[in-house]
Amino acid sequence: MMRSLGERWATDNTFKPVFVDREEDVSLVTRKLYELHKNRKQLKGQSSSLNYRLTVPFAPHMFGSGKTTFCVNYLELIRRFSETSIASFASNSSKKEFLDKLKTSNLLYVDLRVLEQTDPEERSLEWAIYYLMVKNACSRIGVPVMRKRQAFETVEMEPSNLVALLRDKLNIPTNQYLLVVFDEIGALDESYGEFDFERTQDGEVFPYNDFFDIVRRLCKQDNVFFIVVGKSEGLRIKNSVTVGPRVLLHFISLSPLSSSNIVEFLEKSHLEEQFHYRVCDILCSSSFSVDELAEALLECTGGVPGLVTRAVNMLLNYVQTRGQSFRSKDECLSCMNEDGFQRICAEPFIQHISTSDEDKKTEFGILLMMALFHIPFKLYDELNSECYLFDAVNEMGLYRYPIDQDTFQVLIPKVFVGNFEHLSSLSLLEQILLGSLKLEPVDCFFSSKCRVFEGIVAIRLILMLSSKVRNEFRELLCQLSAVFKEMKLPIREPSPLDYMRSVGVSESRSESNKKRKTYGSNEWNKNIQEALYFDRVYIPVDTNSRSPDIIFKLQSPVDSKVLIVGVACKGRWNSERIGWSDIIEEAEKFLVPVSNQVLSNAPDKNHCMLIVVGTKLSFNVASELGDQSRCYSSGMSIESESFTIPSNCELVILCERDVEMLIDKEILNGLERAFSSTDRPLFGDFGPDLLRRVRHSFLSWQ
């Protein structure tokens, strides 16, 4: 009997997860809490220096990023890391004393989702927050909750009275630290009509400004500290609260888990009621290691803690139901790649994205390109006049991967991609971008540098090869090469850009307990015959000296003739130009080995072409080309370099005018500005207008 989708992928909580990683986040929060401790006199106006702005650790992240778990476990984490990663923090007696007292803090957790109006000050946000803190303190120690009017008369709306009452209820002395965690701050998004907020001169209200002003007044009380977390549409970094004169929010990164973190998670987590059964013991087998399971989970979830936990629950339910562990990584990934698994795994976390609004579609397309091309952004980079990129990522329901404290990369977990692919009215471009993200190995995302130039060329090629209307660039290649003209075009459909691992990636062979890089003599033959599918454009994961930047193969409809095409993207963003030596270097690393290893096996059927897409040709190259694109066929020589084109091969060099036909001149100028001083430019170096132009140019080719 067939089981329903829900039965196959149950989400029952079957294990007790442990908390792993977060050393950097603990260190950041500890430093920021110390800043408040050290500068409290300034905050209270008791110091000659009044330059200090209140420092509040803040995590405005998406669901599942580990905000609540981090805060609830913060004190435990301090104790765990006090002898290791944050030991260097206690570099003097003052910091050591602070850290020792912080370890013994009393933590009060306050969930703002239950914030409500109270009487007699029913429209006062300050009084509602005070009462909620008192209510949580009473619940924590198991005593009856004070009536609202009784609490109001006791506290009398003074921060000092509130803190004294909380200490009394929690039975903590005045010299012991009280750490208050405000969670689910996004609840204030729904509070506009419930409380009397301060209004600007034009009548606007900003509930979060009011909220942090309340926190600021409470921070004037000795030995009280705050951490604030929660996703919010209303709290944007555009708001003056984050850049205002009185409060400074420091963002807690909450990075996705790495593969090693997930291994630790799997090895230390155990079944809910059977503590001697570790999660990894249930899911893994003699042929499927915990390291491979961690890699599979990272590939699927991007390391987002909530997604990892939910995916593990679903896999445990599945394995326990069928009574058999996974036998291989491929089998496990096959399960996680099923539509049903991805839909159910992402369900609590994913947000609805409207693709009917053109502005939203443009923003979504830009974020997809940033994720695929690995374009980092800074905290205060603007997407438009109304919105920072930092906020747009939140509002689109995506994640941020922190590169450093103020620099991020757009992270789209693959379980999300599967759901996004079913959105209505997606453009062909968005379909290609999403499909490409689904095929991109996750280790490429975490390690690869900016690939925007190669990415633009690759997607142009996809659109060029699949277009059913007249295409100038395709016609140019047909004019230059008789072999290209014989190929079956257009291809069946626009396929995703496929990141391939095999070309130029080393095999690991053990030799005297050391690993060395080796390349088999049949590598190109194996990869071209087995790894490259017809009509699909590939970009190697690793940019290296053994493969072109882009590769694909085409087939003739008549006599099964095969054309293997490599594309060398030679971006020159300064005064240095592309000379013959650069071009021959690309030809020697691709045409020569492919000719020797692949074409010689079937010289009548196999052909190879290298296309050089260069942004600035040297004067002698441009002069020999006659300012026109040119195709050098097999047997032709480039005398200045003593290089002869191998048998059944062609070398196509595009002139600058035709490169501008492939990538319009304004985009090339923008890329030159962005890459002029760094090989990993940021979003701000490109600018939103340039990325909108890139998107528009793609759409015009559909």
List the defining traits of the structure above.
702 residues, alpha/beta, five-stranded parallel beta sheet, five-stranded mixed beta sheet, 43% helix
Give a structural overview.
It comes from Galdieria partita. InterPro entries: P-loop_NTPase. This is Archaeal ATPase. It is a single chain. This protein is an alpha/beta fold and 702 residues long. The protein contains 30 helices and 23 strands. The longest helix is centred in the N-terminal third of the chain and has 21 residues, at 23-43. The radius of gyration is 30 Å and the shape is elongated.
Provide a compact summary of the structure.
InterPro entries: P-loop_NTPase. By secondary structure, this protein is α/β, with parallel strands linked by helices. Helices cover 43% and strands 15% of the residues.
- Total of helices: 30
Largest sheet: 5 strands, parallel
Helix content: 40-55%
Globally, the shape reads elongated
Radius of gyration: 30 Å
Tell me the number of strands: 23
- Uncertain spans: 1-6, 503-521
Distance between the termini: 45 Å
Please state the average pLDDT score.
87
Q: Which strands sit side by side, in order, in the main sheet?
A: 3-4-5-2-6
Secondary-structure class: alpha/beta
Tell me what portion of residues adopts beta-strand conformation. Answer: 5-15%
